[in-house]
Amino acid sequence: MRMLDKTETTARLPWPALLEALREMFRTGCEAPLRHRHPLPQKEAAEGSLLLMPAWQAHRFTGVKIVHVNPANAKQPGLQAVHSVYLLSDGESGQPLCILDGGTLTDRRTAAASVLAAGYLARPDSQTLLLLGSGKVAHALAEAYAARFGLRDIRIWSRRAESAAKLAASLAAAGLPARAVATPDPAGADIISAATLSTTPLLAGASIAPGTHVDLIGAFRPDMRESDSALVRRARLFVDTRPGALAEAGDVVQAIADGSIDANHIQADLFDLCRGTHPGRTNAGDVTLFKSVGWAGEDLAAAVLAYESEGAG
């Protein structure tokens, strides 16, 4: 059985190939139930979580991402709160084929899904990216957007200014036009991508200029949000999957709850966009909004790509 660590997992998931692998998975589909969550007792925290995210294509591959979320780890220096691995198996025999670094796979497929959507929803001439957040997903987002669009300016904001500065310096050292900014001001941004743990709105509908594409990643629970309801109501709303968005996407769930929109406000999901049943952006002046919460089919697509890359097996 193949073991792929963080470095090798990254090398086997280059952005162009990963975007195409996700596009093909959304075109063809797979079985991917909503994630399983089980509470785990913690000695020094109220509760941890064990998350299981399975997906499979009959007679081809099965996969499951196993995630431990242990908040108590924050009290131990050098120990991260989230650990994950991905197990890929043969879909016919069940034989284990490969174990991949789950964190790296998640970061890269999350960024790739956002940029895949942006290919349909952002203006093709987009040059300025405003990035809210400074964690590992934010780093992957900057790389993925830069690989897809001709970016001339990447502005990075975080509640922790030192983290934004550190990420900007790392990206600049890699040749990307990144700089830290003091506020999350959306003025002049062609694309805004948010990957935070915010529970209060960072973006207001009234502040977003016509033609902007907004990409919201962080609010993966109903009690979280990165935008106000006015923005969700104003924008043409797209999601990664309808069941996931309606069950978990805080920006969408809360806008429905307060009466700003109903479920029919969702224009399309990534299945529709990738299959060509919805054209995506049709007007340069539209404000488009893509809200994702993650789909286990994305993990499976990424894992298969990494496994089948040259030298795997």
From TrEMBL:
Transmembrane segments: none annotated. Pfam families: OCD_Mu_crystall. Coiled coil: none annotated. It comes from the Bacteria. InterPro entries: NAD(P)-bd_dom_sf, ODC_Mu_crystall, ODC_N. PANTHER family: KETIMINE REDUCTASE MU-CRYSTALLIN. This is Ornithine cyclodeaminase family protein. It comes from Teichococcus aerophilus.
